[in-house]
Specification:
Layout: H1 2-27, H2 30-37, H3 43-51, H4 53-79, H5 83-87, H6 101-148, H7 153-167
Helix pairs in contact: 1-4, 1-6, 2-3, 2-6, 3-6, 4-6
Length: 181
């Protein structure tokens, strides 16, 4: 049980970092970032980033999602060993984990609060306060992550295209136009 809490706590750090990076990538000035790193060894990486910002954002969001899921799973496991239920005479399964409806609700509330605070509130504050330096320091890592997740790009492109086409359809088709002409 204690190990599950430790895992959840350790996962909060990269999840917060990933969420802050995702928000910072979305909001920073690419020209300001390029100016900041002009003449450094990372100048080529900045040029790549400016061209691949959407792929970088999607890659960061994918990893952020996995980390959020891992946090929730860790908290559920931590609540899964409810000592009161075991002391109440219920026999735990062979693996020693017993998940009651009450402990599931508690795990949901605690994990929702942890994930919301760390990957929304704290990440937004970090992105606003230190977005550009955060992205600048993480550019190489973002590039590696984007390269690793390259096989998922066709899924992203197909999804974007399937949403873009109906959104740009003429009004005569009955569709609501989301972009001005």
């Amino acid at each position: 049980m204690m190990l599950a809490w430790l895992v959840a706590a350790l996962l909060l750090i990269p999840a917060t970092w990933m969420a802050a990076l995702t928000q910072a990538v979305r909001s920073i000035s690419r020209s300001s970032l390029a100016s900041r790193l002009a003449g450094t060894s990372r100048e080529q990486t900045v040029a790549w980033f400016v061209d691949q910002v959407e792929a970088a954002e999607v890659s960061l969001a994918f990893l952020r999602t996995l980390l959020r899921i891992a946090i929730v799973a860790s908290v559920v496991v931590a609540f899964g060993q409810a000592p009161a239920a075991i002391a109440g005479g219920e026999t735990p399964p062979a693996d020693g984990v017993l998940l009651t409806p009450g402990s599931l609700v508690a795990a949901f509330l605690v994990s929702a609060a942890l994930v919301w605070f760390s990957t929304v509130v704290l990440a937004a504050a970090l992105a606003r306060s230190a977005g550009e330096p955060l992205v600048a320091a993480s550019l190489r890592w973002i590039r590696v992550l984007t390269a690793v997740l390259t096989p998922f790009r066709p899924v992203v492109r197909i999804t974007h295209e399937s949403v873009r086409r109906p959104a740009a359809a003429p009004r005569s088709s009955g569709a609501v136009r989301l972009r001005p002409r």
